[in-house]
Amino acid sequence: MTNILLTGDRPTGKLHLGHYVGSLMRRIELQNKGDYEKFYIMIADTQALGDNSDNVAKIRESIMNVALDYLSVGLDPNKVTIFIQSQVPELTELTCYYMNVVTLARVLRNPTVKEEMAEKEKHGKSLPVGFALYPISQAADITAFGSNIVPVGEDQLPMIEQTREIVRAFNNLYGETLVEPNALLPEKKSRGRLVGIDGKNKMSKSLDNCIYLSDDAQTVKQKVMSMYTDPNHIKASDPGQVEGNTVFTYLDALATDEDIKKYSIEYDTLDQMKAHYSKGGLGDVKVKKVLVEVINNILEPFRQRRAYYEQRKDEVYNMLVEGGKKARKDAQHTLQKVRKAMGIDYSDLLK
Prior knowledge:
2 domains, 15 helices, Rossmann fold
């Protein structure tokens, strides 16, 4: 089978290091490997409206920020198709048809929907219908392009499974029409969901515990130096806890042994640094300084590319327009197949 990939992000602010570790690093690897026929990357503005309908201005502004972040990390519009979800209206129509092959009870059992509903209820609010239908909308996004591979983190597995269920239900009703996708998980476990700098919650814009891909070097330093470590590691001579220590979590995800050798001088590998910290004799500040160097070494080329494209926003807009045209053409093809399978292609009657 020819590989067709689809992934994306909701435009609710600039992208952060959690996005880079959890998905963007893998996208770059897949892009450069080139083992696919098509690779779609979607800026999911329609989905973002599900819990941001009162702040459309934020979504509108974030579309450009996300596009700039994509280009800054090295995603190449000559190799991948970057598009805005709302510019492909066929996705909405497919969502409507898929609503009839999945029950409301099944959608509401989706972990993402359940968690968001519980969070809203805590604050005396209700979840919009649009957000509750998010799993169905995502199924439309994936199937519209015939995607058989969806790069995701483990937290997104329930969404992919629900898409697979919808595909099977549709195909059982109307015949083999849609492609059943498979999730592609990060190869390294450390590239899963990255904890925020507070060490308590996942990296989240709403919790203000992020290191953004566009942060300058001084901001990165300030954020790393404020990071949660081992509360019992009061003096450098004290034995330290590596597991659950935010600084080492980041080093596991981002640093190579070459980085450790370069920026710490006295250690050849991260394991050596961990062993010294665990035994005692290595202070938090020293470890944090290494992490500052590692992160800024990663982000510096991103900052330069972002600055380049910030001066050429017309080119970025054109990229999104062209990406939308290409994505829409492919989605139209799928929609025609779906209508025909369902028996609602009335072209023979409406001549």
